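Hi team,

As requested, here is the filled-out complex form for the pyridoxal-5'-phosphate run. I kept the field names the same as last time so the parser does not choke. Let me know if anything looks off before we queue the next batch.

— J.
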Amino acid sequence: MNQRSYLDYNATAPLRPEVREAVIGALALHGNPSSVHAEGRAARAAIEDARAKVAALVGARPENVIFTSGGTEANALALAAPAGEASWHCYLSAIEHPSVLSGGRFYRETTTIIPVTPDGIADLASLAKKLEKHKPGGWRPIVSLMAANNETGAIQPVAEAAKIVHDAGGILHCDAVQAAGRVPLDMAELGADMVSLSAHKMGGPKGVGALVLAEGVTVEPLIKGGGQEGRRRAGTENVAGIAGFGVAAELAASGIANMQEIAGLRDALEEGVRAISKNAAVFSAGVPRLPNTSCIAVPGAKAETLVIGLDLAGISVSAGAACSSGKVETSHVLAAMGVSPELAHSAIRVSLGIGSSNTDIQSFLGAFGELIKRLKQSAKKAA
Ligand code: PLP
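And here is what came back:
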C-alpha cells in the first residue's frame, strides 16, 4: 500500500516515538505511586517528572496540575461548580467542544451561551453585557472560553475575556486542548484560572489529560476516594499514560518553533483549494488561526463524499468535528457562525502536524481536485 497522508491531527496526533519509549518504560514501573517503598517511589518519580513538564508547557506550577483521563474529564472537572460557598452562573461560548457545552454540573437554567461573530470569534461585547448583572456578593460567573476552536482553528480572545470576567468577580476556564503545542500558551498571559489539556492532541497517548489551576484556585473533585492528585482526583494514577504525556508536552513546547513551517503548508493547501474551486470557502480565514487547521467547503460538494473519496485515495481528513464523525451532523460551530446548513454540510477539516509534508499537501490537492471535477461532471449530467 502506498504511503497514506494523515491530515487529521485535530482528531488525534500520531504518537511520537519518544513518547512510545517513555510509555513502554513506565509500564515496567510496577509500584503503586502512593506506596512508600522503592517501587512506589519510582512510579511517583515518573509522575512528578511528567507533572513538571506539563506545568512548564503552560507556565504553571507543577502542584497546580491535576492529571485526568483526558480533555473531556478536565473540562468536566473545571465545570463541576467550583469549591466554596458561592453560587455560580455558567457562561459558555457557542463554539465550545461538546464536553464543555454539556455544562458540567450546571443546569440549563444556570447556563448562558455567548454568541460568536461570523468569523467564529466569541463576542466579548455580549459577554460583558451579560456579566453586568453580577453584583458583588451575589451569584458569581464562571466562564468557559476555548483557546482555539477545534474545527476552524480560530484563536479566541482569552486574555480580554479573562479581564471582563475578573472585573465581574468571576473565574475563567480555558479549554486549550487544541492550542497546546501549536501556539505558545502561558497561564498568566491568558489570565485563565483553569486550563484543560489533552495528551493525544500533541503526540501523547489517548486517555490522559490535565486540568491546570492558577494559583489559589480550587476545584470540587468529580471522582472522590483516595487522596491522589492532591485530593482533587481520586484513583491510582495512569503512570504510563502520564509519563507519555510528560514527554509529549516537552516535545510540544520545543516544537512550537516548527509551527511556522506548518502554517506555510496550510497556506499552500488553501491556495491550491481556491485554485481548484474559486467558490471555495475557508472558514475563519480572516482572523488569527492555529497554524495547522483549515476548515474548507466547496458549495455542492458534500463533506461525506469528500471524506470517503479522500480516504480511498489514501488521505485522512474529517467532516466537521471528528468527535462526532461516524454520523453526519451539522456542525454547531459553523451554525453558530451563521453558515448555512447546506454549506456547513460541505465543510471538511484538514489539520496538519509535525509529520506533515509538502508531499501530503500535493497528494491532498491532486485527490481533492479529481473529486471536485467528478462531482461537477455528475452535477452537469444530472442537470
Ligand atoms: N476539547 C477540545 C477542543 C477537543 O478538540 C477535544 C477532542 O477533540 C476535547 C476537548 C476532548 O479531549 P479528549 O479527547 O482528551 O477527551
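Two things worth flagging: Residues 154 and 287 are 7 Å apart (CA to CA). The first strand starts at residue 5 and ends at 6.

Thanks,
J.
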